[in-house]
Amino acid sequence: MTLAPTDPTAHLVVTDPVDGTVASTTPRSSDEDVRQAVARARAAAPGWRRTAPAERGALLRAAAEHLREHADELATLNTRETGKVPGDALGGVEAGVGTLLQYAELGPVHRGEALRGQHGAADWTVPHPRGVVLALTPWNDPVAVACGILGAAIVTGNTVVHKGSERCPATIARLNELLAEVLPEGVLVGVDGDAATGEALLAQDGIDVYAHVGSTATGDRLSEVAARTRAHVVRENGGNDAVVVDADVDPVWAASQVALGAFANTGQICTSVERVYVHRAVAVAFVAALVVEADARTAAPAAQYGPLVDERMRDAVHHQVRDAVERGAVLRTGGVVPDGPGSAYPATVLTGVADDMLVMTEETFGPVAPVRVVDSFDEGLRLAAADRYGLAATVLTADTGNALRAAAELPVGTVKVNAVFGGAPGGSAEPRGASGSGFGYGPHLLDELTTTTVVHLEPAGGAR
């Protein structure tokens, strides 16, 4: 359940990034609400831990179906608060429902292993829930991402305190309410607030896991606190994902792939394309095609190409573009803040970028494609790997050997070949470096959210 704040005058107010009007007003949880939330989750933990896995799976399945019935409502809230285009917002809710259903099936069959020991004895492992999970989730795909953490935590017998981003509080509050209407009391408790609320949560005793998707700075803060509290940390943080375009691919096709990766959801995806290394042999045609792709998106209807989430994000994106231009990069299209209300920003292509520019060293999280021309696939691979982030990377190549080398040498959690998005359902990825640690999705997340006990059994000596 979501707790009613004791201070009704404190609210989170979000403006619509399309027109600047008020999109939502959500009560902010007080410090006392935070304490109560953790206490409720802690009180519910023993009973939920003892609930049969099959029953936990059945309840999660029911919660997913309840969520499906309110998909349009959640998608509308998401669009109003973050500017996510309606089709993508609804798709995010549907993806969240699918993830909950997936974990409803995986949870009951999550099992230990038999070990080969001495004759006459038995050895095996048993997974146990960790306890109370603090879930901190982002705004860019709020329902889909939250359902991944919540579903895995709940089905493995943990209870959860969930705080989503202050950029979409009404969406997250409603998500928490809908799921809690089906689940037993205290299994999922929602808290609404900003960074100060997050700090209040970190000050609480009795939290066993910090599960976070969001900025690297917040992930670092969680790891710092966990050194004191000994909580287990699972974090998927920022990325600076590279694409390497080889000389043997169709440059127009490659430009369509890069445009999808850089401009989908206005560049506000964890695995968005952030850096482009294109072989000199195809660079001219590639850049020309990429500019056409960018212009088409900027001119597209609002239902297909939305704004950035707010003016603060737009200012941060534009700062990186301006830094690049002032330092010698060439603005091929976009890069100008439009007049009028809201936080729209055009799809932007930069060329002539240097390796030390902000658009190449920092996560931009906006619709910007900085293009760096390289003389060989090897050079592109080397530059793609030379980064402090380690979330994902893509290579576009017809050379199987180059693809295999990329998979072996890129220090990232996911290497994609000839497709910037996609992958098998249930896939797990483990980010590196500043992008986080631990498996954040798929079956491996069940392992992250449980502990393992090894059992050794021998007959009692002298037993009759």
From TrEMBL:
InterPro entries: Ald_DH/histidinol_DH, Ald_DH_C, Ald_DH_N, Aldehyde_DH_dom, Aldehyde_DH_Superfamily. The keyword RNA-binding does not apply. GO terms for biological process: gamma-aminobutyric acid catabolic process. SUPFAM superfamilies: ALDH-like. Pfam families: Aldedh. Signal peptide: none annotated. This is Acyl-CoA reductase-like NAD-dependent aldehyde dehydrogenase. It comes from Curtobacterium luteum. The gene is gabD.
